[in-house]
ABC transporter related (Pelodictyon phaeoclathratiforme), 222 residues
Amino acid sequence: MTTPVIECNRLSVELGGVMVLDGVTLSVCKGDYLGLVGPNGGGKTTLLRVILGLEKSSGGSVSVFGALPGSFPERIGYVPQRLFFDREFPISVRELVLMGRLSKKKLFQHFNRIDREKADAALGVAGLERLADRRIGTLSGGELQRTLIARALAGEPELLLLDEPTASVDPQMKTTIYDLLDNQKKKLTIVLVSHDIGGIKDHVSGIATLNTTLYAPRDICL
Ligand SMILES: Nc1ncnc2c1ncn2[C@@H]1O[C@H](COP(=O)(O)OP(=O)(O)OP(=O)(O)O)[C@@H](O)[C@H]1O
């Protein structure tokens, strides 16, 4: 039997004295495309942050690629819910996507030709060639989301974690983003946080619910 890519067993997380996740059991295997849904404040982002090793668990266990979270950052691509940046900051779409190669570099190592080729390939996958030289502060919400996905893909991850990439984008851009992910799902394991159950149900291989009484009380278990 192969080791699951992500395995949580009765995972609990306490933040600021509040139990945000309590007894979460979840197994994500290689090639899965998991939709993770739940109410606002249900702990979806927190779960992604635990998987990334950015937040500590307070009970239970969690392993990623069979090791402690944070052990293999170069194998994970992350598309955050928001990107906080100065809209005047003079960085282009191509340069932001190139940042996705940082996890593959050693300290102070420069980007090389291969990094630039991988970044350009990711730009192509996300349909961003036309916008490559645009400053990121001038992008629409949907264009910025696709740039963040391209940045994550530039690092050639095995596991892609996305936190509500289709929030506040129009229906056409949602379709573009779902199609983009569909084209990647044969190569990657994907966890997609979303409120759009209707939109994701035809794309994902499974849906897990978090902290909702509508689907399953306080537990997710595939
Ligand atoms: N550092 C922190 N300290 C205290 N509480 C926190 C911290 N980070 C998050 N929380 C709380 O934990 C709960 C879960 O937050 P989280 O962002 O994981 O939810 P979410 O399901 O992603 O929500 P949304 O759908 O609104 O994005 C929220 O009540 C939030 O206020």
